[in-house]
Amino acid sequence: MRTDLFALRHIGINENNYQQMFKTVGVENLDQLIYETIPDDIKLKNNLNLPEALSENEYLEHLQELADKNKVFKSYIGLGYNEGLLPSPIKRNILENPGWYTAYTPYQAEIAQGRLEALLNFQTMVCDLTGMELANASLLDESTAAAEAMAMLFDVRSRPQKKENVVKFFVSEEILPQTLSLLQTRATPIGIELVIGNHEEFTFGADFFGALLQYPGKYGQVNDYASFVDNCNQNNIKVAVAADILSLVKLKAPAEFGVDVVVGTTQRFGIPLGYGGPHAAFFATKEAYKRNIPGRIIGVTKDTDGKPALRMALQTREQHIKRDKATSNICTAQVLLAVMAGMYAVYHGPKGLEYIANKVHNTTINTATAIEKLGFKQLNTVYFDTIKIEVKDASALKTIAESKKINFNYINDTTVSISINEATSKKDFEAIAACFAELNKAENTASFTEDVQTVIPSSLQRNTPFLENEVFNSYHSETELMRYIKKLERKDLALNHSMISLGSCTMKLNAASEMLPLSSAQWGNIHPFAPVDQAEGYQILLKRLEDHLSEITGFAATSLQPNSGAQGEYAGLMVIRAYHESRNEAHRNICLIPASAHGTNPASAVMAGMKVVVTKTDDYGNIDVNDLREKAELHKDNLAALMVTYPSTHGVFESSIKEVTQLIHDNGGQVYMDGANMNAQVGLTNPGNIGADVCHLNLHKTFAIPHGGGGPGVGPICVAPQLVPFLPGNPVIKTGGEKAITAISSAPWGSSLVCLISYGYIVMLGEEGLRQSTSIAILNANYIKERLSGKFDVLYTGEKGRAAHEMIIDCRPFKQNGIEVTDIAKRLMDYGFHAPTVSFPVAGTLMIEPTESESLAELDRFCDTMLSIRAEIDEATLDNPNNVLKNSPHTLDMVTNDVWDFPYSRQKAAFPLEHIADNKFWPVVRRVDEAYGDRNLICTCAPIEAYMEA
Ligand SMILES: *Cc1c(COP(=O)(O)O)cnc(C)c1O
């Protein structure tokens, strides 16, 4: 037997565990369990056609060979992507540290105070630099953030005249091309009309609700927007600005012009280019919009003892609540990247950032001077880091530059722009100048002057302080930073502590071998708009990943562009929309969605311009086929799509699925499958096989990309042949189908860098390992189900009584003892566990998904814990809430306090089972007060006194 198989490392169960588990589950073998779980008519007849599994070592060698095919040039392309320097201690202690990257979205605030603080730092940094009052904890990329700004301003528009007539949005021609493309995608379906033009010639018409500016402009010109914004404000036109974060260190904060929203990317704060991502975008706005802001906001509140505590504020799961009334579908964002960018500001502090910005600015001025001295004309009058040069023959310059491994941005035959960045050294400066000297056949006389006069007029210079908070002025030595990062890390429960059995979220192993290549500059340092031939390693890898995902899903082609599952949903629906349009059936706009669907489904459908019709689920949690048929037939003339999750969000393989997909096709619709539960399908069945037309996958669930505390994500869509022509494109680099829809994300292949992880996952597991993973995920779920049986009711099962890869347990009956599902979630912390998914898809329940990566010992510890909690529930009574569940979680502070007046022992509070002492996790705050924080919203690191007084 091969012992170097990755599957043996990835899968936590081994052959020695089988007999015991089969006995508990009540099957002879794995085949029997799968037979009893997955309906026969949807099972795959043949094995997937995938290459044979590589060992971890073979994989790392293979990836190095691919990496060597990437050509790492110095890229001065700009356009929203600039090389930055990732400080080594942040790389080592966060990016390469499972304590950070394997954490989940901080819904369980008491065991997430570390990343919540890191995100609060990020928000504070964004507020300081933009001058705005409120910032969220990241969005997917700059273009998405700009589109979200447009959507928010559209939603809040108010006019004396009828709202229906106020549908125009002005977009400055200075906007980045990928942002314009994404705005087009988002505007059309919801009826926004884009008007693109020069901001100086804008007429401030009464039919405009908003405007978007780029600051500095796409080729570097810095405009004074003061009078434009003034005029807009007077005409009730709301203004959003897409700003470069580093330039804001030198430039007047956009808030000072009176704008309503500022968006941008924090990529250049140390985040690798990564051929497009992942990077954290920011979204900052006025307090007045606090209930409209997309994405998650971290806010300050207090715990049971009145001590400060952090948690996600306000409408943090807004699509879950608002569903088809939601104006944004953002769920997964870019937490890990936001944490890193915020830490970059913590490490450098205001002085460090100023040094970096000055250095970039000075190098830019020196570059301009050197090139002008060679006889070229520089066209930007005011600039920060980007200059625009007139040349006779841009293609000749390109040849010269590429011979020196340099990329400029070639605007047209006679104009180039050059964006200087933090990594541009004096040697680089000389090399840039040398290109122009060679072009003019002149001698390179470039010399660097340290003290140059800024070209930014005082009216546009920043003169307000920033990052004055203590956190940005305390950790500037590596020892201090390392300890600060560790201090935060210790407050958080991640996969390196215990199982995180979040149903629907698939928290599986994120293997070190999958992660290692991300650290390499050969993957990290490639600009998304670099000529494709410089990214051969990426091109091979991404194409293979697409092909493997198409094979796994049973579809014809894949687009890796969407940066999250929700964006995948949106992309899939937009592709369906384009397909209907191409057949002159643009009127098809009804989207059927079962009541149990994830909240992002209806939110995405509305964004795609569709009308949501909710269909019923029956008493067993299955799609009510009769209701569905009725509604499909009723709407058959306008039916666009069905969105269906499979296995269902209730964790069941519905046997009617083929009938359902046929029904939709018969009535002219396309079937969209939400692939969040793909971990129950891979290798055994697939969306193509059940008759779907498109699905998204969550590579950050099923395909091993870590959750990063709430992102990054990758949500590719895989499509049937008729939808291939419409796969999303990019305005700068050709990608997507023949009749590609406009962009879904800023970058042509989305977050390419983390695609390495999923590629590694697939090629190291191979066909057999993938199939085995799915089977064991199903075995583990059914094992837990049987161990808890009799003590917890499982809400839904398949026809033969089996769960799929997850199950819902009902906690509503415990209300009679005064115990809510939240009490169980919090009590789990005392036992060292993160709660399963709470109240989704059914309120008052827990959804448990163990995945294949957990060992039998860990599954047993979890089951023992649940049974122990069950016994505690029995002890609880409705009339006396002073019990171990209601008071949970218990902190070290409580347990070691001289005063202890709880009616149970300290041991029972903190060490209720014997094994806990061996690996105790201490929540650092008591239960957080959600409502208090929402009433007193504070979303930046204000001094503690400020909010305790509030
Ligand atoms: C996670 C999930 C989504 C959304 O994915 P994000 O990456 O968070 O946008 C959609 N549907 C289901 C069922 C999910 O579990």
TrEMBL record:
Residues 9-435, 450-730 form the Glycine cleavage system P-protein N-terminal domain. Gene3D superfamilies: Aspartate Aminotransferase, domain 1, Type I PLP-dependent aspartate aminotransferase-like (Major domain). InterPro entries: GcvP, GDC-P_C, GDC-P_N, GDC_P, PyrdxlP-dep_Trfase, PyrdxlP-dep_Trfase_major, PyrdxlP-dep_Trfase_small. GO terms for biological process: glycine decarboxylation via glycine cleavage system. The modification N6-(pyridoxal phosphate)lysine is found at K701. The glycine cleavage system catalyzes the degradation of glycine. The P protein binds the alpha-amino group of glycine through its pyridoxal phosphate cofactor; CO(2) is released and the remaining methylamine moiety is then transferred to the lipoamide cofactor of the H protein. Belongs to the GcvP family. This is Glycine dehydrogenase (decarboxylating). The lineage of its organism: Bacteria, Pseudomonadati, Bacteroidota, Flavobacteriia, Flavobacteriales. The gene is gcvP.
